[in-house]
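Section: Multi-chain targets

For targets with more than one molecule, the full set of components is provided together so that the structure can be written out for the assembly as a whole rather than chain by chain. Components appear in the order listed by the source. The example entry contains two components.
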Amino acid sequence: MPAAFIPTALRRLTGNVHRVDVSPGNLLGVIEELERRFPGIREALIEDDRLRPGVLASIDGDETGSLFASIGDASEVHFVLAISGG
Amino acid sequence: MTTTERPRYSVIGTRPIRHDGIDKVTGRALYGNDIDVPGHISGAILRSPYAHARIKSIDTSRSAALPGVRAIVTGKDMPYVSPKLHEQGEGSLVNLGMLSRNCMAQDKALFAGHAVAAVAADSAIIADQALKLIDVDYEVLSPVMDGLEAMAPGAPVLMEDLKTNTASLFRGGGFKKDDEPNFETNVASSFVLEIGDLANGFELADIVIEHDYHVGEAHQGYIEPQSATALWGPDGHLTIWCSSQGHFSIRDLTAGILQIPVGSIKVVPLEIGGGFGAKLFTTIEPVAALLSMKCGKPVKITLSRADVFDAVGPTSAAHVHVKMGVTNEGRLTAGESRLVFEAGAFPGSPVIGAATCMFTPYDIPNLRVEGFDVLVNKPKVTAYRAPGAPAGALAVETVIDEFCERLGMDPLEFRLLNAAKEGTRRVTGVASPRIGCIETLEAARDSDHYRAPISGPHRGRGVAAGFWGNAPGQASVTASILADGTVTLVEGSPDIGGTRTTAAMQLAEALGIPAEQVRPSVGDTDAVGFTSLTGGSSVAFKQGVAANEVAKDLIAQLRARAAKMWTANPEDVVYGDGAVSLKSDPGKRLTLKQMAARLNETGGPIVGRAAVSPGGVGASHAVHIADVEVDPETGKVTVLRYTTVVDAGTAIHPGYVEGQMQGGASQGIGWALNEEFVYNSEGQLLNSSFLDYRMPTTLDVPPIETVIVEVPNPGHPFGVRGVGEIVIVPPLAAIANAIAQATGKRMREVPMNARRVLESLSANGSSPK
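Its structure, encoded as tokens over all components, is:
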């Protein structure tokens, strides 16, 4: 079962739960599932139907800004800070 | 050079002459200021002499009356772009409203050098005269020039409407919404990252060390000042010629700042004389465009060296507090840091880079990093190779050096004991994929340099490790097969460090032809599809993916053509070693060149395309070794020997990788020992020239020895990892550790110039070895 890891800044919404089992599918589905369990988390991650500026998802180590990125049966999803390179 | 796990390649790993080499060494290559669009006139920018001042009024009447003046622009001419948090642009951390105000001040000048007006005139001399005739009435305010002071209660506030963003993960700060309460602050953003149980981690430790560090802002030191020519045509289309680290970014940001459609702008990239992160975003292009719109002529703005220092933005100055714990057996148990990074006058420091990289070379189960992005009355900072990471590495790597001293352990063996590997959790919680941390440490340990003894008075050796995550991005390319077998490759990444050639080499490898048979060029924004910035050490990675994909497209078309010629099924035609052949009849074989000569007979031109947005970025690790000698009379530090070890994944062109390693190390040595912005009490920069801003010359830097480690990135068709930024992460710490070995004194303020070294030797008596 895939797992979503909640970043420190959002654990106030999850009662300090940092790891949540979720269903496979895509990233948007994971966030919607988190929203059903922890209201407010969608707004913290999504703005204008996209991941908020400065937020990326790391799915199995690959960073993506796409809400349509696939989530596999054993995927790990982290929400991370976008880094500007030089 | 050490090589592990690498397949056999015919082109990759060789050192062909770069395709643009002749043009560059003979002076034929065209840089930003080399373009002279017919009929162009000169633009110039008036800058605030004050670090913090309210602009009460600007009177341009005397300037406008000067013969030869064609247009004048002030903040009032800039379209309104909201800097409110909820209306940020789409591009990573860029807040277009803030970027617009950085290009041209509105109601306040926020740093000495902030643009307040611009003029276009028939000549540069007239433009300069015209600037002197602009009357600006300022109300001078107190500046705040240090991040910690800017966070203190009662500090001067740069933006009364600024809102500290803590709601989500991290965003570039912006103005509060209209219905939100007023609370004046200079903190644009703050965040916390943590894994494990920090308190428990420190309880497990036998030794705990904590210190404060300060790193001054350093300039990227690129040779070419920014230059842009803009022509706003009568049809409403805008063309911009400029050198940058991403002409698509310049296009999109200019469109956002001027509030015009992206489709009405074409940006033509010119060669770039260095950027290192400072030319990622737009500065003068929207101003040149507005001047052109007003006068109907092409307008060229070229910055002076003083402008570059005063106004464009160095990297961030940073205060770093770090605390770490270790057991008597040498196991790291906990790490904690508080990072205060100066953003300059607008939000967006590289504090995230420091936070996410500083502990990552190590397997430390309990971590906490708190970061702050703070406004001060200095130029808006820009990126500089691995933004933020060198300051974080300085703190962590020097504390580790102290642990080694206390425990009597070899610094590289200690690091190997604690090294991150596949599966190690980073402070973000993400598990490391396949990385080359251990391999770089082993290569450093086994290097000629580390095995050679260092002896003599006042001499010491320091080592430091570093991490940088690298970036992915998008890339678009087209490739055409010409009748003589040449393959042209049009890509969209401005070429820094030979990236045309590395793209061409990866295409050549995939096609099985020599690199010289590929002719690469960089297309303008109308000539090739969107390609993201030349930044984040992304180009060799993403262009390699695109090259591999476009090769597949070309090969599929070649196979179809051969099948047509041989009346065979395309599935029976194979491609290898630069030729198509028929599986069922190996005698039937045509090279790419032979096929190219038959294009018209078999269906016409062959053009391949690829547009990619790849995952699979491979992170980079590095270890540097520095030997120094300290003059106890003057405090001068001489670098005697320096070695840089980097995991390149696969070195496409080893010569270019070595160039990045040597360049990054040299810049790091300069930052470590000399380079620093010096301001007076009014916030004016005192050393805005290369005479007073002391970068190292060839006389200051020994030959930089390079060891390329190759732990192929499994996420890339050829195993590439970026190398452009990791190279500057370890030098500050490596040199600080070397000075400590030489003198017995720990330096915690960068640059470690002669004055500071001498002061440290004088404090409580020196103990040089």
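Chain B touches chain A through 56 residues (CB under 8 Å).
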